[in-house]
Amino acid sequence: MEVVLDKQYPVAASVEAAWQVLANMNELATCMPGAQITEEIDATHYKGAVKVKVGPAVAAFAGTIEVLTLDIETRTLKMMGKGADKGGSSASMELTATLAPSDGGNCILQGHAEVIVNGKFAQFGGRMMTSVSDMILAQFADVFSQKAQVVQAGMAPVAGADASASGNNPESAAVPPPPVAPVVAKEFNALGFVWLMIKNFFGGLFGRKS
């Protein structure tokens, strides 16, 4: 089963700050719920893992990531990810992500993804898979924006630095930014998602006007 997604999300940081996250595969992976890079084979090939909780059970996918394009001029990343679990399910995704300037010095994350799912997860159908993907990508975009904001905070000049520099006071001008706790996406709980779908269904059912 194939699902095609075209999305764009606002990022509360500059293109330059957001690019530092998009171009760093280790940072980018932790934007995805339950994902992590387990091994860096070379500059364009990685091994990774994704965990998805279904109530008390945990489904673990292991796979590979290949960076196909990393273009600083157009701020574009193109990558291919493939993975499988022990139960025989598999998935692949070809993703193209681009950063574009937006109002107020911020930017927009634009993404086109082609996802192919085989095995038991394909039985959920295209509509369910699209809804699951939308929820996962929304969390991804939120964490991505938070990471970009942290990067931008580190890039921003210290208040009063210019004045201090003009007064030949380099110690005040070179104050480093305070350390910030790393931002990591939470694992995706599929049971929680199904419960949300049920609540939305009954909410819409009883909320309909006769």
Give an account of the 3D structure:
- The protein is an alpha+beta fold and 210 residues long.
- The chain has a single domain, classed as Alpha-D-Glucose-1,6-Bisphosphate, Chain A, domain 4, CATH 3.30.530.
- The chain is built from 6 helices and 8 strands.
- It has helices at 15-22, 25-29, 126-155, 161-166, 170-173, 190-206, and strands at 2-11, 35-40, 45-54, 57-71, 76-84, 90-101, 107-118, 188-189.
- Strands 1, 2, 3, 4, 5, 6, 7 and 8 form an 8-stranded mixed sheet that branches.
- Helix 1 packs across helix 3.
- The longest helix is centred in the last third of the chain and has 30 residues, at 126-155.
Q: What's the CATH topology label?
A: Alpha-D-Glucose-1,6-Bisphosphate, Chain A, domain 4
Return residue spans where pLDDT drops below 50 for at least 5 consecutive residues.
158-181, 190-204
Quote the distance from N terminus to C terminus.
37 Å
The secondary-structure element order is EHHEEEEEEHHHEH
**What's the rounded overall pLDDT mean?**
76
| CATH class annotation | Alpha Beta
Query: So how many helices?
Result: 6
Task: Provide the CATH superfamily.
Answer: START domain
| Tally of discrete structural domains | 1
- Rg over CA atoms: 20 Å
Structural class estimated from helices and strands: alpha+beta
**Biggest sheet features:** 8 strands, mixed
Share in β-strands: 35-45%
How would you describe the oligomerization state of the chains in this entry? single chain
Helix content class:
25-40%
Based on Cα principal axes, name the global outline: globular
